[in-house]
Amino acid sequence: MKKIMFAFVALFFATLSYAQIEGKWKTIDDETGQEKSIVEIFKKSDGKYYGKVTQLLIKPANANCVDCKDDRKNKPILGMEVVRGLKKEGNEFTGGTITDPKTGKTYKCTITRSGDKLNVRGYIGFSLIGRNQTWHKLK
């Protein structure tokens, strides 16, 4: 009986941690396949998830987001909040935005976790039209 109870508790906690996205993730450029940066995803007191660039693995052409249209305009990419306002809905994190500092474009965002990978989808309007990236958990 103790073994069954232990297995159940272990499975329960594994399921809970599986759906979490908090931590540091290595971003992979969807166009070049190169490792681009490290983004740390965290939960704020409002219950929503945010992600900021903590390390650049490729030196960008410009260290600031010159093409950003909001409060991030001309701010350093290092330390920039690129993911904002995601809410957990089942196994998805959605309802927020993601900004590409290279182009300054902001997209609606949905993130799902698959093991040690995040499937990050940025899109405009409908989810069918957009871009996908796979981010890898930093060990």
From TrEMBL:
Residues 1-19 form the signal peptide. Residues 23-137 form the DUF2147 domain. It comes from the Bacteria. Gene3D superfamilies: 2.40.128.520. Keywords: Signal. This is DUF2147 domain-containing protein.
